[in-house]
Amino acid sequence: MDSNNSTSRRKFLALAATAAAIPVANAIGFEYSQPSQSQLGAGRVAIVTGSSRGIGAATARRLALDGYAVTVNYLTNKDMASRIVEDIKAAGGRAIFRQADVADPKAVKALFDATMEAFGGVDVVVSNAGIMNTGLFAEMADDAFDRMIATNIKGSFNVLREASRRTRDGGRIISLSSSIIQMKPAGAGAYAASKAAQEMYAGVLAKELSGRRISVNAIAPGAVDTDLLRSKGTTEQLQGAAAMTPYGRLGKPEDIANIISLLCSEKGEWVNGQLIYANGGIV
């Protein structure tokens, strides 16, 4: 294999793992079946931050399919968030959408207030909102670094803090990390650090909530087929990334949403305080 092509592929794989944790548009069709009372989500409520597109949108749709009432959160993509809610409602589910910048603790509190007002409580919180700013240490601008840290570290802390106060006993709290923390490519130092924090948050918060039967975990996606990933790579690079996984394909937003669904189910209760790599074996 040509060494330049090999290097290019490795860099793209690293970008793919990075991009997987950023909300992007979900073009997959949505089908809904009325949940039975035996489903965990029936009568329960979920908040998914950064859920106007990508993994967040797929998660909101999946939890609605499981019977949860869902709050779809967005920062700027109001129309996309509205469409997700419309789809869920049209299929017989319950959902609302609310704007909130997770970096602002008052906005996060208002997001939880709106959810409790609409649905009466909170049982599942998925902290998915995040941004990606990459660059070499010598080239990273202060404002790019500060905004990313404010969203990915402080923002996820704001969400998890509020979740620790509001989630009902027996609930689930999940944050999104990234497989980039294992790949460690040049240019991803600050972003990877912000995602590595999610493992620490999950492990510590799980212990702090001892006795309440609330499991807390982090998920680290790998290369997920999203609009953002496709905008960053050529067809050849995408095919190369897919070939690097044992399954011979890229991940889909639904792959991650299905894992979140499992963790939220009764079968997922014993998984607690963990970082779960969900990358098809790419690392």
From TrEMBL:
GO terms for molecular function: oxidoreductase activity, acting on CH-OH group of donors. It holds the Pfam family adh_short_C2. It comes from the Bacteria. Residues 1-27 form the signal peptide. Gene3D superfamilies: NAD(P)-binding Rossmann-like Domain. SMART domains: PKS_KR. Keywords: Oxidoreductase, Signal. Residues 44-222 form the Ketoreductase domain. Belongs to the short-chain dehydrogenases/reductases (SDR) family. This is SDR family oxidoreductase. It comes from Flavobacterium alkalisoli.
